[in-house]
Amino acid sequence: SSExxxxxxxxxxxxxxxxxxxxxxxxxxxxxxxxxQKAGQAPLLxxxxxxxxxxxxxxxxxxxxxxxxxxxxITRVQAEDEADYYCQSAGSGGxxxxxxxxxxxxxxx
Amino acid sequence: QVQLVESGGGLVKPGGALRLSCETSGFYFNDYYITxxxxxxxxxxxxxxxxxxxxFAKYYADSVKGRFTISRDxxxxxxxxxxxxxxxxxxxxxxxxxxxxxNNWIESWGRGTLVTVSS
Lengths: 109, 119
What we know:
The complex is a heterodimer.
Chain A (H helix, E strand, L loop, with lengths): L8 E4 L5 E6 L8 E6 L6 E4 L13 E6 L2 E6 L8 E7 L9 E2 L3 E5 L1
Parallel strand pairs in A: 1-9
Antiparallel strand pairs in A: 2-6, 3-4, 3-7, 5-6, 7-8, 7-9
Chain B lengths: L2 E5 L2 E3 L5 E8 L6 E8 L5 E7 L6 E3 L7 E6 L4 E6 L8 E9 L7 E2 L3 E5 L2
Parallel strand pairs in B: 2-11
Antiparallel strand pairs in B: 1-3, 3-8, 4-5, 4-9, 5-6, 7-8, 9-10, 9-11
């Protein structure tokens, strides 16, 4: 089955830029989406279809793609951005619509 | 506003059964698929099950196939997840979530309900 690989943790100082990667063999053929999950809360969609931003999500959040890797970039990081971030895409099998990456804990120093 | 509210979680012994429900409001239910995603304590997200807007398509993760059954009632804007033969590693917060038919990203999530499987 297909997998999505994320770094377990990323740390940045306030005002800096955070980049969180997600790698998988199916990503050149399938869109990736990103969710933010703050402690004790449900996930929140922050990027869909690799680069699209839902309404209400700050412009500081952006997505990009290159080959088998997609990247979530957060510019001018704020303390409120501290959370776990998960990428998600389609599974390679016909009956596995969703796979999630293992998640990346973003720490704002 | 869009709401998805899960219920039915609790403590159950291994081998036991539970029925989770997802009550929705604030959107036209018939246009959306519903999916369940779980999160074990301190772990990441794991997709569990999916049901299409018409109930025509139903999918399950390999880890729950044959034990969990998903169904929906479009007249009541609700979805059930019947869980049988529960195992200790089914312990998790179970989230109900929606997406527009044809899209594979999740637009909205409920707050989750905790299922604990323990003797």
